[in-house]
Amino acid sequence: MTEIFAHRGSSGTHPENSLPAIKAAINSKADGIELDIHLIKTGELIVMHDEKVDRTTNGSGYLKDFTLAKLKKLEIGNRFFRKVRVPTLEEVFKLIGDAEIILNIELKTDVFEYAGIEQKVIDLANKYPHINVMYSSFNPATLVRLRKIDSTSRLALITHENLDAVLDLHKKIQLDAVHPPIKAKDNPVLKEIPARYWTVNKEEDIAYFYAIHAKGMMTDFPEVAVSIRKKEHIQ
Length: 235
Ligand code: G3P
Ligand code: CA
Description:
The protein has about 240 residues and is α/β, with parallel strands linked by helices.
């Protein structure tokens, strides 16, 4: 069955990477949640897409320069979602609780390496062993470090259109999958390794990735993907 991952939570209908978006993703009956993490000055793992808080909050500056106390003063809501704060990754683990959903944590280490982030995220996940976690990154060095720390974790390389590095990395550290953009869909490398595509929002694209039996897709509208799957009786 093609897995549906809620991209940045249910980000088409809720503030991206927020607790309401995560909650909506759980309620949508998606198979997984994808979110992005960074490390801040006081050592907490923070859920946000960009390196800077400017686009998604009412503040400004690099996340890495924030203390948790300062970050928690910012708002990421909008007029429909008021008083929503930037979540820590631990708050997401707590929110997931007993829900049966895969948590795909993307380590955003492509601009800043955030020394020690790999060990921190694995230590945190180990506190919640009942939660089904997997890791992804655009940065192969992060995946190599994760593999050294944990020989069994599920790892995925996120790519742009060029997939040249994928199979060598797969040979070296045993990837679970590659996460390519939709536009890479005809690349022959994708015959050699399972793929979860991003970001699949149009109904015809969702239907296409079911039809080719892709391993998975990341979508901002998981409830739409779930309803197409139900309607078409796709297994
Ligand atoms: O997991 C794939 C996708 O999330 C990568 O793109 O920019 O949304 O993090 P981005
Ligand atoms: Ca991401």
